[in-house]
Amino acid sequence: MAQHGVKGPKTPRAHLIDIRKKCTSLGVWRVEFVAAARRLARIYAHIDQIEAITEAPSFEYLTSHTNKNGSTNLIKNPLLGQLDNLYDQALTLERELGLTSAALKRIKNESGEQSAADPFEKLLTTE
Q1: What is the pTM of this model?
Q2: What count of Cα atoms within 13 Å lies in the side-chain half-sphere of residue 66?
Q3: Distance CA 126, CA 102 (A)
Q4: Which of 16, 52, 88, 115 supports an S-S bond with 41, CB 3.0-4.6 Å?
Q5: Nearest one of 68, 50, 70, 67 to 59, comparing CA atoms
Q6: Rounded CA gap, 95 and 104, in Å?
Q7: CB-neighbour burial class of residue 20 (10 A; exposed 0-12, middle 13-18, buried 19+)
Q8: Phi and psi, residue 98, nearest 5°
Q9: Residue 108 and residue 28: Cα distance in Å, rounded?
Q10: Rounded distance between C-alpha atoms, residue 50 and residue 8, angstroms
Q11: DSSP string for 88-99
């Protein structure tokens, strides 16, 4: 039963809207990004689902695995490996869409835009 005021994981559509807003606000949104943005939205939705499972008090970080010899060993829960994989995929797509600082700088430079002087960049370049 849904509780009032408690939100569940975001849908891929909600993530897609957020991704487009972020790209648009950064000035890097292009129609060619739609497919990558949809993939990233689905990845974000999967991350939300797995994080909801791993944050449950009953989640076990270690699980027992019985190999073919019959020995039982403790292994890292496979969901944690899947979560790491999704984080890597998300980072790759974020770079493609210009949602990381390095990728944003690259995209801005490719389009010929002069970025406003970044105060931190000034600190690094001054002696």
Answers
A1: 0.76
A2: 1
A3: 20
A4: 16
A5: 50
A6: 8
A7: middle
A8: 80, 25
A9: 8
A10: 12
A11: HHHHHHHHHHT-
